Amino acid sequence: MTETIRTSTPSPGPSSNNSAAGITAKGLKGGQLGLLAVVVLGISTIAPAYTLTSALGPTVNEAGLQLPVIFLIGFIPMILVSLAYRELNADSPDSGTTFTWVTKAFGPWVGWMGGWGLLAANIIVLSNLAGVAVDFFYLFLSQLTGAPELADLAANKALNVLTCFVFVALAVWVSYRGLHTTKLVQYGLVGFQLLVLGLFVAMAFANWSTSETAIPFSWEWFDVTRIETFGQIAAGISLSIFVYWGWDVCLTVNEETANGKKTSGLAGTLTAVIVLAIYLLVSIATMMFAGVGDTGNGLNNTEIHENIFTALASPIMGPFAILMSLAVLSSSAASLQSTFMSPSRSLLAMGHYGALPEPFSRVSRKFATPGFATIAAGVMSAGFYAVMHVVSENVLNDTILALGLMICFYYGLTALACAWYFRHSVFSSVRNFILRLLCPVLGGVGLFVVFGQTAVDSLAPEFGSGSEVFGVGLVFVLGIGILALGAVFMLIMARVRPGFFRGETLKRDTPALVVPE
User: Fold this and answer.
1) Which helix (H) or strand (E) holds 6?
2) Rounded to whole angstroms, how far apart are CA atoms 300 and 58?
3) Where are the beta strands (DSSP E) in 268-425?
4) H-helix or E-strand containing 60?
5) Is 33-501 in CATH node 3.20.20.210?
6) Looking at residues 117-123, what average pLDDT do you find?
7) What whole-number distance in Å separates Cα of residue 367 and Cα of residue 361?
């Protein structure tokens, strides 16, 4: 990784039809991805096998038998927000996505915080992905060799953190080498995990009646009125939002996608719909086989919450259980690698427009990737994981809950930015009213309601793992504390790089009337 790099700088001159907004090229290579490749990257980033093994238990703990309807409710703001992303991307395709679009709508200060929220979410999930990869790596070695003691190596904190660093370094290396290498890796890993999940679902449906904790399917699982409090709904949705999160990577690679204005937006929506179908099938099959009890294989058993599939793979799949361990390992490893595309390109855009120090704007001459930004994202995620592994009793659960706060913040902000940015054209047609006003506002407001409820609830130390900092719940400290830290960094950058905050490099702009192509 020592080849010469070139620095991209904001161009003051016109750039296609986005000249008024100041959007300029950053040195990324266009036309590298088609629709299928972008959808595969989106599914890889969401990582169905990884997200389900991490989030299924905590979500059942909040929603109980209403797990399927929570997944459906959580999907509603996701699809609404994805439509807002499509509109913004069609008007102003830019790898900075939330950072760029919120800046254009609300100005540099709000835009910077939107970009920070996106970066924080990615750094949190990268550390989480690395943690799951470590756990399943040693579990896979244990199953492969028949030596149970190998699985216990993941509990050794020093070895765990060191192994995490190795996984992050490998993911950074692949990401640094560009989208061609990434695409080849992802086709194999995503295909494998989907095949294994399909086998898991088929065998769970076939064998559910043989389980001691089995429960029959019921349409009442889709009845939201059976959830007792709004707090449960908010927490359940926050967790389900985590399992959908990642489709927006499809928009992050818009500058490197063939016909990125249309392809990236369509890929994001398709990815969300495909993942919804996967989650409903897996959640129903798992509930039927395991039930929602708090003992044994029951999904409310807190002892199996960190890795549901570890407990259920053998009872459901028998001798094929090793495939599930390998699927979760490949899922988390694949997502660890593909997820780096989002923070690296967001950091690139923020550096390019002068919102971060100049080194972040550098692009690899050989691979046309955000070289410095990719390495920086790797260092930050590995460092965050190391710290969390020391202070949290349940690092996966706490980071998932904190991640939900970050997602609600920057997704909601982007959706509201869409409505404000297009405010002059929302009444020009029924289509514009629905896609540029109604859907974005409903999605954005809904996410901020969940954000507020979860933030209030997470003040209590018992929220999440029970870890606390000076009597305040660790989830609140992570979620709100990281946003507050972002505000501090923003004030520092405003003093160091004032041009962006004066609107000199990326202007606040609103099209008077945009007619869709």
Assistant:
1) strand 5-7
2) 8
3) 362-364
4) helix 48-63
5) no
6) 90
7) 15
pLDDT digits (tens, 9 = 90+) for 74-107: 888 889 999 999 999 999 999 999 999 999 999 9
Cα dihedral: 420, 353, 255, 384 (round 10): -90
Query: Tokens 């929603």 sit at which residue?
Result: 63
Contacts of 255 (CB under 8 A, 6+ apart): 25, 26, 28, 30, 93, 94, 95
Q: How far apart, in whole angstroms, are the C-alpha atoms of residue 92 and residue 17? A: 9
End-to-end CA distance of the chain: 42
Distance CA 342, CA 381 (A): 13
Contacts with 25 (C-beta within 8 Å, 6 or more apart), sequence order? 8, 11, 15, 255
Half-sphere exposure of 404 (CA within 13 A, CB side): 34
- Numbers of helices and strands, H then E, in the chain: 19, 4
In DSSP terms, 33 is beta-bridged to 257
Mean pLDDT of 35-58: 87
**Do the Cβ atoms of 339 and 125 come closer than 8 Å?**
yes
CA of 283: how far to CAs of 55, 177, 205, 270, 280, in Å?
11, 36, 11, 20, 5
Q: Cα–Cα distance between 434 and 236 in angstroms, integer?
A: 27
Rounded to whole angstroms, the Cα distance separating 131 from 135 reads: 6
Structure tokens at 251: 């928009």
Predicted TM-score of the model (pTM):
0.85
Residue 370 φ/ψ, nearest 5 degrees: -70, 80
Tell me the Ramachandran region of residue 154: left when phi exceeds 0, alpha when psi lies from -120 to 50, beta otherwise: alpha
